[in-house]
Amino acid sequence: MAVTYTIQFEVKAGEIDRFQTLLGGVLDAMKHEPNFHEARLLADPGNPLRWMLYETWEDHQDVLDVQIHRPYREDWHAALEDLLASPRAIGMWTPVRYDSGRP
Question: What is the separation of C-alpha 44 from the centre of its chain, rounded to a whole number of angstroms?
Answer without folding.
Answer: 15
